[in-house]
Specification:
heterodimer, A: about 300 residues, alpha+beta, four-stranded mixed β-sheet, about 5% strand, B: about 180 residues, mainly alpha, 6 helices, rod-shaped
């Protein structure tokens, strides 16, 4: 018993260190991507402006990263239109979160509600002191107390081992580049249609759009590789350790299994990996499949506990 | 010169290891104290709800004097207890007494339908959960503390600093039994 516990603790601390390290590398990678953009622009405009453009791109990238780091939870919440949960209306939810924070020794996260019929939840923030937890209205309506506690325990364990820092940073920083690349490509499309591509700006847009279109999917893929399925399994295990009741989480997963997925557009693709269960279900977005292990597998592992 | 650096490095390393282990025991010990105070907080919250509950119940079930006296006494014991052990014990007593109140409520349909009573019942059962979670965290903290004391090389440092294994909070056997209700 003692040995097993010790081993688990070591794994847990390893995970925290790993998440902090990966978050750091992600920030460096994003910074380099911006510098690369600056370099491309300066080549396209005029090599004489090299230094000015590089300085501007450094300033932009740093502010982008600082905003992403400190406001990632707010951005994630805004992107799914979540609202602060009312303390009186959602009394049982608050009781469940409070009880589990006591069981885990974590500070109380801010609790949010997101208007959606599907059973789902996510956690975000940069560290346990600045964490949020967001639950769908569907989860509150359809889950009983034990099931809800299982889901919240899962999210709290993401908070405890700093999964939230890395996962939210990845979603926000990479997601915004993906959105920007789409905007550039679309503006190119429309610009081309109206025949406005005659000056240098058009060339810059073209080069930026193409380079973003190449880099963004690579970044997204890289992030998906690092957001491993292991995180979900270990969060399930920690949830059980907190609630001491595996059937709660198992039943919640079973209920999710028989639900239909969210419609595209209700949740931005970049935020999807943050969720308790893949919001889009199986076939809606194939490239997101790898971020969540199949529900059946998760149930199977839980039933062996 | 090289030897001096090596010896200096080794000495510094040893000092650091000593500090790390000292801090580890202190940190884990603090976590235990912290979790104990969390139990305390929840027990007090429960005690605070009791007068309100008694008032509501009295309005519908005047004759259940002995049960209400049990609850009031348990609350008094809880607030009067000097140390955490006494408070935990009184807390168990209070929990049992509250259970019998909720059991007799079954005989008073009007009381059962009272909104205030329902609210208090929900609050008290949530607090009961939190007390259980706080105890669980306390025992988890004890486990990691005891592991650090018992497992090598922590064992060496523990005996050096005079740190000893701490006891778990045991759940009293009677708290699992169904409360007896007299009619």
């Amino acid at each position: 018993m003692a040995e097993k516990e010790l081993k688990r603790r070591i794994v847990f601390y390893d995970q925290i260190a790993k998440n902090k390290r990966q978050s750091f590398f992600l920030i460096i990678a994003i910074f380099l991507v911006f510098l690369l953009f600056g370099y491309i622009i300066s080549l396209a405009v005029d090599p004489g402006f090299f230094f000015i453009i590089m300085i501007i791109s450094i300033i932009i990238s740093i502010s982008y990263i600082v905003i992403g780091y400190y406001k990632s939870d707010k951005i994630a919440l805004a992107s799914v239109k979540a609202k602060r949960a009312d303390k009186i209306k959602y009394r049982q939810l608050y009781h469940a979160v409070e009880g589990l924070t006591i069981a885990s020794g974590l500070p109380m996260p801010k609790v949010y509600i997101m208007e959606n019929n599907q059973i789902n939840a996510f956690a975000s923030g940069r560290d346990p002191q600045h964490a949020i937890i967001c639950v769908t209205t569907g989860a509150i309506e359809k889950l009983d107390k034990q099931e809800l506690e299982g889901v919240i325990g899962h999210e709290l364990s993401h908070i405890a081992n700093y999964d939230i820092r890395f996962m939210t940073l990845a979603a926000i920083l990479v997601g915004m580049i993906a959105i920007a690349s789409e905007i550039f490509l679309r503006s190119l499309w429309f610009g081309g249609g109206r025949g406005r591509r005659d000056d240098k700006a058009g060339v810059i847009f073209l080069i930026l759009g193409i380079s973003m279109a190449i880099i963004a999917p690579i970044l997204v893929k890289l992030v998906q590789l690092t957001i491993s399925r292991k995180r979900e399994f270990s969060a399930d295990a920690t949830a059980v350790k907190l609630t001491r009741y595996p059937p709660g989480l198992t039943r919640a997963l079973k209920k999710i299994k028989y639900e239909t997925g969210m419609k595209k557009g209700q949740v931005p693709g970049a935020v999807a990996p943050l969720f308790f269960a893949n919001p889009f279900k199986k076939d809606a977005m194939k490239n997101l499949r790898s971020t969540h292990p199949p529900i059946d597998k998760r149930i199977e592992v839980l039933e062996r506990m | 010169m090289v030897w001096a650096w090596i010896i200096g490095g080794i000495v510094a390393l040893i000092v650091i290891i000593f500090i790390v282990y000292y801090n580890k025991f202190v940190l884990l010990g603090n976590r235990i104290d912290n979790s104990l105070s969390q139990i305390d907080v929840q027990l007090r919250k429960r005690a605070d709800l009791v007068p309100n509950l008694i008032k509501t119940v009295k309005g519908y079930a005047k004759h259940e004097k002995s049960i209400m006296a049990d609850v009031t006494n348990a609350r008094k014991n809880l607030l009067g207890a000097k140390d955490i052990k006494g408070r935990v014990k009184a807390g168990n007593q209070l929990q049992r007494a509250l259970k019998s109140i909720f059991a007799i409520a079954e005989n008073y349909p009007q009381l059962k339908a009272n909104e205030n009573f329902l609210h208090l019942q929900k609050e008290l059962s949530a607090i009961e959960d939190k007390v259980a979670y706080a105890r669980q965290f306390y025992n988890d903290s004890i486990l990691s503390y005891n592991n650090s004391v018992k497992v090598f090389p922590g064992k060496m440092f523990a005996s050096l600093y005079g740190v000893k294994v701490k006891p778990y909070l045991e759940i009293p056997a009677e708290s699992r039994a169904v409360p007896k209700v007299k009619f």
